[in-house]
Amino acid sequence: SLDAKVAGDLVYVIGETREELGGSEYFAHLGSVGNIVPGLDASAARERYGRLTEAISSELIASACPVSHGGLGIALAKVAIAGQLGMDLTLDVGMRPDYFLFSESLGRFVVTVAPDNKRAFELALGSEAVLIGRIRGSSFRITQEKTVLDLPVSELETAYKAPFREY
Fold first, then answer.
1. Residue 90: is it exposed, middle or buried by C-beta count within 10 angstroms (0-12/13-18/19+)?
2. Which of 76, 124, 146, 161 is most open to solvent, judged by the fewest CB atoms within 10 Å of its CB?
3. pTM of the model
């Protein structure tokens, strides 16, 4: 399931995020077509999916959500909204936070893991697993040197559903 389960669980991004925003929802919102269109390394993705499947069957993962339209920021928001739990995330990446959050690089997942499973999970996924924060409180908070976003999950849900109000 994709919902955040328990306060204190760790939040990971699985798979590499690159500056691939060509044709992205984000650049469309900004009125631009964008830059590099996402490409897929099929053999790397197959290996990643295999490792992830093993970790799931070994019950090392509390939740998993694929990163698709809208990118990582949207996937993280979906996980927080589904569980009605906050997240405290730190982006320690050499990329603009908006590019990191809205890149649509393929083959990625947001995964939550109980702290007791941290070591086994990281051994199972290797360098594919990047720890970016934890489930905590009732706000969706992202920092990269300074605060990028800090919003109660209830407001995040309203913002997320706003584009679909007419349907």
1. middle
2. 146
3. 0.92
